Amino acid sequence: MLQHLVIKNYALIQHLEMEPSAKLNIVTGETGAGKSIMVGAVGLLLGNRADTKALYDETEKCIVEGSFDLKEYNLKLFFEHYDLDYSPQTIIRREINPNGKSRAFVNDLPVTLDILKALGSNLMDVHSQHDTLQLASNEYQLSIIDAFAGTKNQLKEFQLAYNNFKNAQREYKNLESEAADLKKEADYNGFLLDELEKLNLHTDEQESLEEELNILENAEEIKSKLNQILNSFDQEDASATENLSQGIQVLNQLSRLSDKYTSLAERAESCLIELRDIASELEKEEMSVDIDPSKLEFTQNRLSNIYQLQQKHQVSSIAELLRIQEVLAEKVSKTINLDEDLKAKSESLQKSKAILLNQANQLSAARIKAFDKLTCQMKELLKDLGMPDAAVKIEHNLTEPTHTGIDEISLLFSANKGVRPQSLKNVASGGEFARLMFCVKYVLADKTAMPTIVFDEIDTGISGEIALKMVKMMEIMASNHQVLVITHLPQIAAKGEQHYFVYKYNQADKAVSKIKLLQKSERIEEIAKMIGGEKPSTIALENARELLGH
User: Fold this and answer.
1) 292: helix, strand or coil
2) For residues 537, 523, 478 and 487, what is the CA-based torsion angle, rounded to 10 degrees?
3) How many DSSP H helices and E strands does the chain contain?
4) How many domains does the chain have?
5) 40 in Cβ contact with 486 (< 8 Å)
6) 60 three-class SS
7) 118 and 211, same structural domain?
8) Which of 254, 272, 400, 493 is most buried, taking the most CB atoms under 10 A from its CB?
9) pLDDT tens digits for 68-126?
């Protein structure tokens, strides 16, 4: 339940704090004082979208913070699922910066609005005029049936089966579409693959072939040049090695005269060894170069085939051609196995559909079973609220499976005797809608683990004895739930365990909404004003005391 609420810099609220009772809380105040603004601020804690236009001071950030007692509610798994720090005393905070950026926190950990909405749906149920309009929605009506029938878990199981079915259906359709394309391209893909496979390509082949071709095309020139070098090095009378050998002999003769000639002779000897080694390598290179027209032709043809395929597939390397070959091989293989794959996907689809329909039928049967009990309870409650001739009927049709099941629900209503029940959007007035919605909330209160229920002017269009009966029902709800009621009726205002008064303070440059927890004497005066106006008479004060006495 909500233990502490702080609202700062929101709409007409500069700073507001309240600590509601665990039972029935009443909020009253003059029109425009800011009662419904509080509901809007609470909506921010539940994940509603923020608007910088709602800032009281556009230069300061808005903060809405609520402290909740979660001890009695099994929410540990929820916190674990979203990787949040669980605490029996949980604080939710929402901030709106002047630049429009909005942030949300749960126990000081930043969270997304989706997580905040999911958590808020477990903490508070806020009724507003928007919810009254929502009651006309068929999907919302179906959610009422599920809550009353206790089919929440069955709905989850159905939705899991529905998601599995949709996935299987999507996979089958995708494969079917792909199969049609593959069959069209089968011959061409096979031809392309055969072309690539016949070449038997290797990743680093192109570079070595290009180098080999360069040598083969210039073989005569290479052999000629190498022989020229060899002759100058080692194969002529005045070759480099012969001249260097003679020089070494002379240096050896001079070495007896000075050690420096010995050193020079050793260095020259090293040069001679290196020169002879180079000559040996050159001789091997010369012998390895073949003037081979057939090999030249083979290399030219192979490279030509590689270049043609690269141009055809718009790539520039053998590695890319090999990747294309893999893709083509996969397509050709898939084409060969298409019928078997389609059959397997079809069987999987039919199996998931059978599971889906079984789950759907079970869910539908459980819902239908609850129809009579729900309508009977609604009729009795509406009778207590001054609508003795009200008729409630649930119209049901089976549809193709959707994410909510195979049931199309329409709640039909008539407030008057002899009038056939019709769709809510066609027959219910504002007051009738409010009472109908209140009955829905009352019926569902014991079916849902909702810590806090907020009613924003649910008493529209009622008065007198009906208001007393409505507040009695609120008191019953408050025995198991924390209830906050924004009301304009003195009969309801008198029954709360705590009574908050919202008023507009006009002494500053800009009007400010403030809230005050009323004491007993203040409650008498406020309720008397609700009965008799700004200056209540003695009779109004006595009536207020009498209402509070009840």
Assistant:
1) coil
2) 60
3) 19, 15
4) 2
5) no
6) coil
7) no
8) 493
9) 999 878 888 899 999 999 999 999 999 999 888 899 999 999 999 999 999 988 888 88
